[in-house]
């Protein structure tokens, strides 16, 4: 008699394979844009966060990047310094706190911002074809994966 777990194993393997294939395809998009070859994965994540926040009119402080990426202050500083050096990001004084800086799009950022916008538009077009109940399931699974990862990070 099957408990249902036997049937879930092949589904879990298919889901994992699909997730890994998606992640690789996403990285390929960035490689084609010529960005990944020049930036580390953490730098790409930081840049994406900074550009999206700036486009929304809500520039980030460096500590926000550090918290989101779960890296040290020194690691965050190195990433931001690299992005500033490439003119992808610039630091600007925080009007709310003269000791702090906000991170905003730099002179070289428009190309990256356009690539990011196209990527987001393609993703939205793709998911627009997916039934809502499937999207809710996907969000549930991805949230669960994120929460487990966060828990493991806290436990380390």
**Largest sheet report:** 3 strands, antiparallel
Classify the oligomer: single chain
Strand content: 5-15%
Please count the helical segments.
6
Output the radius of gyration: 19 Å
- Looking at the overall shape, the CATH architecture of the domain at 22-129 is Orthogonal Bundle
CATH superfamily of the domain at 22-129: Winged helix-like DNA-binding domain superfamily/Winged helix DNA-binding domain
- CATH secondary-structure class of the domain at 22-129: Mainly Alpha
Protein name: HTH marR-type domain-containing protein
GO molecular function: DNA-binding transcription factor activity
InterPro entries: HTH_MarR-typ, WH-like_DNA-bd_sf, WH_DNA-bd_sf
Domain HTH marR-type: 32-135
Descriptive overview:
Pfam families: MarR_2. Residues 32-135 form the HTH marR-type domain. The protein has a domain at 22-129: Winged helix-like DNA-binding domain superfamily/Winged helix DNA-binding domain (Arc Repressor Mutant, subunit A, Orthogonal Bundle). It has a three-stranded antiparallel sheet. The relative contact order is 0.09. Helix 2 (41-55) packs across helix 4 and helix 3 crosses helix 4. It is mainly alpha-helical and 156 residues long. The model has no long low-confidence stretch (mean pLDDT 84). It has six helices and three strands, in the order H-H-E-H-H-E-E-H-H. It has helices spanning 5-32, 41-55, 62-69, 73-85, 109-128, 132-155; strands spanning 60-61, 89-94, 97-105. The N and C termini lie far apart (39 Å). The protein is globular.
């Amino acid at each position: 008699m099957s408990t249902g777990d036997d049937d879930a194993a092949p589904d879990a393997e298919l889901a994992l394979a699909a997730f890994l294939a998606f992640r690789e395809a996403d990285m390929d998009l960035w490689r084609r844009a010529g960005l990944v070859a020049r930036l580390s994965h953490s730098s790409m994540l930081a840049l994406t966060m900074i550009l999206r926040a700036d486009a929304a009119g809500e520039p980030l402080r460096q500590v926000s990047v550090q918290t989101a990426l779960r890296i040290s202050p020194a690691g965050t500083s190195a990433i931001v310094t690299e992005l500033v050096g490439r003119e992808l990001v610039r630091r600007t004084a925080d009007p709310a706190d003269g000791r702090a800086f906000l991170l905003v799009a730099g002179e070289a950022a428009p190309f990256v911002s356009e690539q990011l916008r196209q990527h987001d538009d393609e993703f939205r077009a793709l998911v627009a074809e997916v039934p809502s109940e499937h999207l809710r399931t996907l969000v549930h699974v991805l949230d669960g994966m994120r929460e487990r990862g966060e828990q493991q990070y806290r436990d380390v």
